[in-house]
Amino acid sequence: MDLPFIVATLTRRGLLNPGRPIRVASQLNALRRWGWSLAGELRQAAARDPGRVAVVDEHGAALTYQELLDRSERLARSLRAGLGVQAGDRVGVLCRNHHGLIEAIVAAMLLGADAVLVNTGLSAAQLATVAEEQGLRVLVHDAEFAERILGLPAELHRVDERRQEELIAGALPGDQLQPPERDGRTIVLTSGTTGAPKGARRPTPHGFGPLVSIIDRIPLHVHDTVLIAAPLFHTWGYAALQVSFALRATIVLHRRFDPAATLAALAAQPCDALFAVPVMLQRLMEVPPPASRPPLKVVAVSGSALPGGLATAFMDRYGDVLHNLYGSTEVSWASIAGPAELRTAPTTAGRPPHGTRLEILDDAGEPVRDGRVGRIFVGNEMLFEGYTSGAGRESRDGLLDTGDLGRMNPEGLLFVDGRADDMIVSGGENVFPSEVEDLIARLPQVREVAVIGVPDTEYGQRLAAFLALHPGETLDPEAVREYVRHYLARFSVPRDVVFVKYLPRNATGKVLSRELRRYYG
User: Fold this and answer.
1) By CB atoms within 10 Å of each CB, which of 252, 271, 275, 315 scores lowest?
2) Which residues pair with 197 in a beta bridge?
């Protein structure tokens, strides 16, 4: 990434504002010695703004950047002295959004250990698989998960919230930390909507490039107050944490997402930005808006597709502040859509940010024409380093396969049609469930909808639509089919229309298709 662009972007966002020389020197020295990992970012923030509030929880309790760093260092020293954690070990973190999760991740990285971010929605059996496959030495967990981890190996050290506080309080004095012999990595588990989650090794940034790619398109600034509603164990929530540390922002965290509580916090703090997943925006739209609009400048979402009509409806209520980032655990980011683009095309994934290459390729690896559907390949500075199993993803000319299908319009906007393995062939026709979902979601009676492919003896596969309606609303299955038939081709009409109370989702808001398929035995 070219230096003038980096400097111009950092200047616009306030990162090059002058400060006390001794603190600026300490900040730069922290990055030089500790690098650009989460631990390094926390160190630079504490060096530059030690007294600034770093984290506020749902009860209003706050920690400054210096306090957060001190607690993380004390935990690291106790993990090393008491539990033998060292460079190359793996520390599992099974926590909701609170400062203890941040301290555990940073502590692991300070020692050169890998932090494995564990999805709070995993079952006991899945947790056992993760513990074995990732070779966890320690599991830091919230007290609420105590019963779920009973079946884990006895030799696995367990650190609950009470024990974590004891380790922090009992840290040996004078045991200074030095940069480890190896950088600790962050291992993010894939969402596991179709099977067991896989561990993906996230790279450590090597400079300002990744940050600049994001804040150039999403207008976040130094010292913003940011509510991160997306789970921190998810790629998007973790990215929000990294960006917030880099900007020396004040981070607001709630253990669980509640739409009314979130709206109250946005006004009470007050917050400049909200990081969320799309289903959270849907829930915010279902509660009465506050008397006065929250002072939001940015609402940034990622993690799944925006349902049809949601972008426009949300901006009509809360202003043109919505930014939609399309990416994945493996490629980090691919494109970003801003408010103007979402007003023009509410389902677009936007354009690649600066320093990102994006190509739509056919099965032979050749670029396809605008408007034609192909496989989405992405290249940037933060492509993952492979799965912990040793497996990788297909790449072509430095571009990584996202596993998604999509198309570009003549104006250069990307549209994602869905996962390549979600596309079905019905009677010889290619059908994309996402297109049908977006259409059905526009029905005013529909709260949420998922469309999947199911086996069919005559056509090979057919579409099945699962609809959850707003309270008090009704719909006739044939009316739904006729509505789709009016707008789309006959092979896109769902043969089955099933009404459910709610759609099964994982902790990051993605619909669990495997649970819906159980309806068919």
Assistant:
1) 315
2) none
> Which residues does 338 contact at the CB level (< 8 Å), separation at least 6?
217, 218, 323, 350
In the chain, how many H helices and how many E strands? 16, 24
Amino acid code (one letter) for 63: L
CA gap 268, 504 in Å, rounded? 32
Residue 401: CB atoms within 10 Å: 18
The answer to whether the CB of 376 falls within 8 A of the CB of 358 is yes
β-strands 114-117, 186-189 pairing: parallel
For the chain, give every domain's residue range: 3-202, 208-420, 424-520
Q: Which CATH number fits domain 3-202: 3.40.50.12780, 1.10.3720.10, 3.40.50.150, 2.40.50.840?
A: 3.40.50.12780
pLDDT, one tens digit per residue, over 347-363 is 999 999 999 999 999 98
DSSP at 505: B
Judging by DSSP bridges, how do beta strands 157-159 and 225-228 pair with one another? Answer: unpaired
Residue with tokens 């496989």: 375
Number of other residues whose CB lies within 10 A of the CB of residue 208: 19
Closest of 184, 154, 159 to residue 170, by C-alpha: 159
Going by their DSSP bridges, the two strands 424-426 and 199-202 should be labelled as unpaired
Q: What fold characterizes domain 208-420?
A: Rossmann fold (3.40.50)
- Looking only at the bridges linking them, the beta strands covering 157-159 and 138-141 are parallel
Beta bridge partners of 14: none
How confident is the model over 387-427, as pLDDT tens digits?
988 888 899 999 999 999 999 999 999 999 888 888 888 87
**Residue, of 71 and 421, whose pLDDT is higher:** 71
CATH architecture of 424-520: 2-Layer Sandwich (3.30)
* Domain pair 3-202 / 424-520, same fold: no
Per residue in 22-58, pLDDT tens? 999 999 999 999 999 999 999 999 999 999 999 999 9
Task: Specify which residues 404 forms β-bridges with.
Answer: 419
Q: At 479, phi and psi to the nearest 5?
A: -65, -35
Burial of 332 (0-12, 13-18, 19+ CB in 10 A): buried
Could you tell me whether strands 496-499 and 460-469 are parallel, antiparallel, or unpaired per DSSP bridges?
parallel
